[in-house]
Amino acid sequence: MATVQTVQGTIDSKELGITLMHEHLYIDRSHLWEEPNGPAKYFANQHVTMDILGKLRLNPYDNKDNCLMVDEEVAVREAKEFYNFGGATIIDVTPVGLGRDPKALYRLSRRTGLNIIMGCGYYLHNAIPLHVREWSIEQIEDDIVRDLEFGVDETGIKAGIIGEIGIGPEMTDLEVKVLRAAARAQKRTGKVLTIHLPGWERYGHKVLDIVEKEGGSIQKTILDHMNPSMDDFDYQTSLADRGAFLEYDQIGMDLLFPEGQSPSDEENARAIIRLLEKGYGQSLLLSHDVFLKILLKTYGGWGYSHILENFVPRLRKMGVDQKEINMMLVDNPRRIFERDI
After folding, report:
1. DSSP 260
2. Within 10 Å of residue 144's Cβ, how many Cβ atoms?
3. Contact, 203 vs 168, CB < 8 A?
4. Which helix (H) or strand (E) holds 55?
5. What pLDDT, on a 0 to 100 scale, did the predictor assign at position 162?
6. How many CB atoms neighbour CB 54 within 10 A?
7. Can you state the angle between helices 173-189 and 204-213, rounded to 10 degrees?
8. CATH of the domain at 195
9. Cα–Cα distance for residue pair 78/89, rounded to 1 Å
10. Confidence of residue 1 (pLDDT cuts 50, 70, 90)
11. Cβ pair 155, 183 in contact under 8 A
């Protein structure tokens, strides 16, 4: 048993229950939005509505409103859906610079009864605030540690996980600097580290090498967005063999991104089952990564309850037993928080 930091205070790891390891309850990517040219221009500045839902599934970044999730009543309603299906904990990995809102997360936790764990650190190159880009590794490290140990600014609300730390397809020097700082912060604090990987690339070992070199713990590190590399079984199992957790966090995300198409839930299920059958169940974590309006039920998506409501029944029909389901949704989240660095 270990102590876990939530936005309302500490809890025992045994209280985590069914946990979504990678979500965004509030997020604002609108400042990164670029107005598209061509046919998408006509719906670029519209509010998200059902008549453009199909277009947005093929072009999710072409609409500015789709990149903005800040409505508290919507957040409460959507999070309660997860709670009503038996969920207990949501980890909000929204980094600094993308609308992370400690006070809003605190209110949301109070109103829903959910444990909410807040992230810290910085995302991809273009999302890192300009002043932070000039900081040294040591300054970024201290900033991350401050959020974990003392709380965010004057709120006193503490982060409970490092990340999601952003690594993009270019893996820029700035992103590597932030990753190095995050690994050092992990060494100082013993916290879990979760890292955004460009899913269609194969950067997992590069990232783990950096974490290890800086004194971090691979055994307390989560590699995000493993769904797109599901067909590269040797790649994924080699990462798990090093002790890292593999996060299948695009469940229900039927979207076409510039990098490629997110796998279907049938494909996700088959890949997860293959890993389970080969003995890698203790390395698996599940989540949805709701980060766009169209992924919420309110706007035509599956929401935060989809894994419990729809994906778990799919897994059961395909032969996955309850022990394995509990392993991925309850036991593994608890174990990563309980692991010593």
Report:
1. E
2. 28
3. no
4. helix 53-58
5. 99
6. 11
7. 50
8. 3.20.20.140
9. 14
10. confident
11. no
Amino acid at 295: L
Residue 125 has pLDDT above 90, yes or no: yes
Total count of domains within the chain: 1
Cα radius of gyration rounded to whole Å, the chain: 19
**125 token code pair:** 């190159």
In tens, the pLDDT along 270-296 reads: 999 999 999 999 999 999 999 999 999
Which residue segment(s) compose the domain that 133 sits in?
A: 3-338
Counting Cβ atoms within 10 Å, is residue 296 exposed (0-12), middle (13-18) or buried (19+)?
buried
d(CA 8, CA 309) in angstroms, rounded, equals 27
Of all helices (H) and strands (E), which one includes residue 212?
helix 204-213
d(CA 33, CA 289): 19
Residues 226 and 303: their CA atoms lie apart, in Å, by 20
User: For all residues of the chain together, what is the average pLDDT?
Assistant: 98
pLDDT in tens, 97-107: 999 999 999 99
The whole model's pTM is what? 0.98
- Least Cα distance to 194 among 205, 206, 207, 203 occurs for 207
Per-residue pLDDT reduced to its tens digit, 33-86: 999 988 889 899 999 999 999 999 999 999 999 999 999 999 999 999 999 999
Helix (H) or strand (E) holding 248: strand 245-248
Q: In a 10 Å sphere around its CB, with 0-12 CB exposed, 13-18 middle and 19+ buried, how is residue 332 labelled?
A: buried
For residues 250 and 289, the answer to whether their CB atoms sit within 8 Å is yes
Integer distance in angstroms from the first to the last C-alpha of the chain? Answer: 14
Alpha-carbon distance of 252 to 301, in angstroms, equals 8
Q: What is the DSSP string of 148-209?
A: HHT-STTT-PPP-SEEEEE--TT--HHHHHHHHHHHHHHHHH---EEEE--TTS--HHHHHH
